[in-house]
Design brief:
single chain, alpha/beta, DHBP synthase, Rossmann fold, eleven-stranded mixed beta sheet, binds adenosine monophosphate, binds magnesium ion
């Protein structure tokens, strides 16, 4: 398949928006920019198109998709009812990096929901994404636009590396500002529960909803015989080809551990201004004290690690406060939960 590249600079580029929307209306797959990461979109009401998303990504069939809308009214087609808590969340955080899980309507196929009786809904803030949804006139089912298992793409180049020849088109629309996937919260349980941390923090959610639980799988390894609330949490995710090992402790002990345990196939994933002290190939994940910057940088850093050709990568451990919880969640998964206390 020849993958069309659609360059769109702003949401006012109506020709580009129309081209992308037309392909989606005709049942095609288009990768689109969003503020979290690039999404691989299809008409959520076209079951055949949605099935093709799973094929293009190599995504396990039991991992449901997020449905993207461009205005709150569109949600009534997707869900059984909109509880007051959902309305509060949409008022406060939409458009933006928050996905809300609710009981699904019968218009949502089992392919989108992976057989669950719920659906995940998000309204992206990215203006190009929003304009494409509006122009297509249908909600768009869209997981991240990477091959299943590899880091989510935050720019056109990484989408192209994974998806060229596998999908109908890729919109080249700049970099994702947040750089991590959306926060996922379910309202289909008695107490609202965060299933995946992201750009909207647990603290922000508690301010609006009061009690909010954090799913126990977020930082813990998921055992093979345990059914997680969010199917996506059981897969090894975001993994570079190298083995990533997180060393939790001070930079001094990090340097000492690495110097004793490295060879010519070792690289490090560190914070700004640390790599220069290491005598090894290094990739930085931003300022030590800026979880926002670490969020923006992490997935790019994970892809750059493979460009070093390293077999083992020792990583510094970010702080877990605020958006840092999301950064740790992704990094711990990339490391398959290999964490050494130093
Ligand atoms: P992705 O779009 O690739 O970032 O993945 C979407 C994430 O949301 C995955 O971790 C899914 O398992 C999760 N998800 C989507 N729909 C549901 C749902 N109905 N219930 C629980 N988790 C969901
Ligand atoms: Mg994904």
């Amino acid at each position: 398949m020849i993958t069309e590249i659609i360059k769109i600079k702003t949401a006012e580029d109506t020709a580009g928006i129309k081209t992308a929307a037309e392909i989606l209306k005709n049942g095609g797959l288009v990768a689109i920019p969003t503020e979290t990461v690039y999404g691989l979109a299809a008409n959520a009401f076209d079951e055949n198109a949605v099935k093709n998303i799973f094929i293009a990504k190599g995504r396990p069939q039991d991992n449901p998709l997020i449905v993207h809308i461009s205005s709150v009214e569109e949600i009534y087609d997707l869900v059984e009812e909109v509880p007051e808590k959902a309305m509060k969340l949409f008022e406060k955080f939409s458009p933006g990096p928050l996905t809300v899980i609710l009981k699904k309507s019968e218009k949502i196929s089992d392919t989108v929901s992976a057989g669950l009786d719920t659906v995940a809904v998000r309204m992206p803030a990215n203006k190009i994404a929003s304009a494409i949804i509006k122009e297509a006139g249908v909600p768009l089912a869209a997981p991240s636009a990477n091959l299943s298992g590899s880091p989510s793409p935050t720019c056109f180049k990484y989408v192209f590396d994974d998806m060229n020849t596998r999908i109908d088109a890729i919109v080249d629309g700049g970099e994702s500002e947040v750089g991590l996937e959306s926060t996922v919260i379910t309202l289909a349980k008695d107490v609202p529960t965060v299933l995946r941390p992201g750009g909207i923090t647990v603290e922000q959610l508690r301010e609006v909803l009061g009690e909010v639980e954090i799913d126990s799988g977020i930082l813990k390894n998921i055992e093979a015989d345990f059914t997680p609330a969010s199917p996506g949490m059981k897969y090894k995710h975001y993994a570079p080809k190298a083995d990533v090992i997180i060393l939790r402790g001070s930079f001094e002990s990090f340097k000492e551990y690495v110097s004793k345990n490295s060879d010519e196939h070792t690289a490090v994933l560190c914070f700004d201004n640390e790599g220069e002290e290491m005598n090894l190939p290094f990739v930085t994940m931003g300022d030590k004290n800026s979880p926002d910057e670490q969020g923006q940088r992490l997935f790019t850093a994970l892809r750059q690690i493979d460009e070093t050709g390293a077999k083992t990568v020792y990583a510094r451990c970010p702080s877990q406060t605020g958006i840092g919880l999301a950064v740790c969640n992704r990094l711990f998964r990339a490391a398959a939960f290999r964490i050494i206390e130093i």
